Amino acid sequence: MGATYAVVRVTVTGLSAGAVVYIDAIAFGPPIGWQGNVIPYNTTSVETDASGWVAASNTTVDRFLTTDTWDGWYVQRLTSTAAGVVGSAMVTGAPVTAGAAYAAYAMVKSTPGSAVVTLAIRWYNVGGTLISTDTSPAWTLVGTAYSRIVAEGTAPVGATTARLAISSTAAAGGATWFVDLAGLAPAPIIPDSLLTFAEQSVEPATLGWTADSGCTVARSETRAFDSFASLRVAPVASTATVSITRAIPVSERESFRFSPTIWKPVSSVPARMDMIFSWRDASGTLISTTVGQWTLGSLEGWYQPVGSALAPDGTASVRLSLRFSEMTPTLGVYPERFIDRTTFGPGGLAVYAEPTAVGYGADIYVQGLTDGSYTTWSLTRWLADGSEQPVRGADGDIAGIPITSDRATAQDFEAPLGVPVQYKARIIHPIDGSRGSLSLPVTLPEPPTTDVVLKDVGQPARQAAVTAQELPQWARAARQAVHHVRGRSRPVVISDVRLARTGSLTLVTASAVERDALWWILDSGTTLLLQWPAVWGERDVYVQVGDVTEGRLTRFAEHGDRSWSLALTEVDRPVGGLAGSPDRTWDDIATDHDTWDEVLSTYGTWLDVYAGVA
After folding, report:
1. Which residue, of 201, 222, 423, 447, has the fewest CB within 10 Å?
2. CA neighbours within 13 Å on the CB side: how many for 516?
3. What's the pLDDT at 228?
4. Nearest to 94 by CA among 134, 40, 140
5. Within 13 Å, how many C-alpha atoms sit on residue 497's CB side?
6. Contact, 103 vs 91, CB < 8 A?
């Protein structure tokens, strides 16, 4: 503390008169090592001495001067005294934090050649008692070059220090291993990611990844986006699927973001890839699957697609998969893929929908609008036939809406009833394009099979299910003029597009309450949405209601039953925004207004207060 500069001094003693000393390559600075290394540098590199290490049985350990080092001038040399297990371990533990993930590294080579080596992290408590050990997979050293071996583990409860141990097997006495730059550091897990270091980077091994179908997987140092290694995917078919095996704990109704970094070779056409979320309950049973489709470019290089989805109700864990498809072989060989720097954690764009508590509609919740530098967003409804329709918002269709917060809510009262629908949210950038997320299917309830639903889509508080007595006999009038030309038997007909459908719908109400509710919907004179039970096979239609006739079903005055005849004309979907909601309560008014004066200045009538129309 307080030092501001340093001087490097070299002192040579015991020289005779006239002796000459040559000094070269003087350096001063932080030592080379792994970022965040908690082990003292001399133990890591043995540049000063090998006192930080102790030999296992059947082994001698010394500090060895050689030009064949990974760092500096010296290595830790292990020499077998006989055939059998050899190894070394740290004498003093390095400080660790219980519950934190760590990665251990060492550069190792063997003489004369191939050998199998393991690296272990031994966890100790404050009294120096061994708690547990995390050991790397067996690493096969090939040739005479250094190999980086990696182990990972999480410091258990009660752990305060950790020591590294290196082991191998000798075929006979006199075999040697060089160990250099052995270190322990907090695992460089990407912030907020729920993956382990091995799942994220494949640096320790392929632990956590499996080849589901159509390929094999292996750890490879041929390519890497981060550090040394990546997961090599070798397809044997046009479609290949790989997965993170572990069931990753998640919370229901939260959005999660999945982003692998993928290398692909050059291709004649862009490559397709699916990101698959398999949601499971507490017993491990599959609830549903969300699939996000991506198209990787045709150029060679690394791509970083992003997929996100919302965990459905009952979700306790998720399994992640990547599916590469439409791959074309060259001379019978399918192109390889490499996966590195994979992240998964809370966040990302996601949509959830459920039926409204009151009325026939859907509540829609959107998360992750601020995931990236996108500026606007949109929301659409997807039907089973593949058609896409806009969702109405307060100021019109939800399209090109400026992003002002990470979350948004909407209601949809124009979705068909009794059939599955999905909702897709898109976030848009004027230059970088757009990215979307599709909700799980939701089926809105429908009325009894005797009823139809009438809605004012601009003021959805005006809606009711009414018993149908007779459906319309739809007619479409022609627009044409018939001209009989002298000397011709056949006329000349000039025509235009046929007119919209017209017809008469007969309804029945059973009480004064139902009667008044129907009049309330009809009184506004606005365009209405007419919806049918799904089993009727009719498509929903926007109508303008013309003349209305209300008649009694019986001559007995006390009976409240009425028969209605509504003259209908089919029209286009109306423009404009959505105001109010059928599930509006006094709590909504109290939330939006602090005083009665604000209520009076906002609404002109009690009907406006009820409908939420300012």
Report:
1. 222
2. 3
3. 85
4. 40
5. 3
6. no
Greatest mean pLDDT among 25-39, 145-159, 431-445 = 145-159
Can you count the helices (H) and strands (E) in the chain? 6, 42
Query: Do residues 423 and 351 lie in contact, with contact meaning Cβ atoms separated by under 8 Å?
Result: yes
| Of the candidates 334, 339, 342, the residue with the CA atom closest to the CA atom of residue 215 | 334
Is 142 a residue whose pLDDT tops 90? no
Q: Which two tokens stand for residue 485?
A: 């030309």
| H-helix or E-strand spanning residue 14 | none
How far is Cα 243 from Cα 343, in angstroms, rounded to an integer?
13
Please give the span between the terminal C-alpha atoms of the chain, in angstroms, as a whole number: 67
**CA 462-460-608 angle, 5° bins:** 70
Q: What is the dihedral of CA 162, 167, 173, 175, to 10 degrees?
A: -100
pLDDT at 332: 85
Q: Give me the mean pLDDT over the 118-142 stretch.
A: 94
Identify the CA nearest to 416 among candidates 501, 538, 576.
Answer: 538
**Is there a contact between 241 and 322 (Cβ–Cβ < 8 Å)?**
yes
Predicted pLDDT at 590: 87
pTM to 2 decimal places: 0.74
Report, as an integer, the average pLDDT of 23-47: 89
pLDDT tier, 485 (very low <50, low <70, confident <90, very high otherwise): very high
Secondary structure element (H or E) that encloses residue 599, with its range: helix 596-602
Q: How confident is the model at residue 588 (pLDDT cuts 50, 70, 90)?
A: confident
d(CA 380, CA 348) in angstroms, rounded, equals 18
Transcribe 111-154 into DSSP letters. ESS-EEEEEEEEEE-TTS-EEEEEEPPPEEE-TTS-EEEEEEEE
316 near 282, Cβ under 8 Å?
A: yes
Mean pLDDT for 92-99 is 96
Helix (H) or strand (E) holding 609: helix 606-611
DSSP type of residue 370: T
**Cα gap 338→358, rounded to integer Å:** 50
Residue whose tokens read 């030092």? 3
Residues 6+ apart with CB under 8 A from 9: none
Q: Is the pLDDT of residue 65 over 90?
A: yes
Stated as kind and residue range, the H or E segment containing 38 is none
- What's the pLDDT score for residue 32? 76
Specify the range with the lowest mean pLDDT, choosing from 310-314, 438-442, 557-561. 557-561
pLDDT exceeds cutoff 80 at 7: yes
What are the backbone dihedrals phi and psi of residue 586, each rounded to the nearest 5 degrees, phi first?
-60, -30
How far is C-alpha 122 from the chain's CA centre? 35
| Gap between the Cα atoms of 294 and 291, Å rounded | 10
Residue 228 corresponds to which amino acid?
F
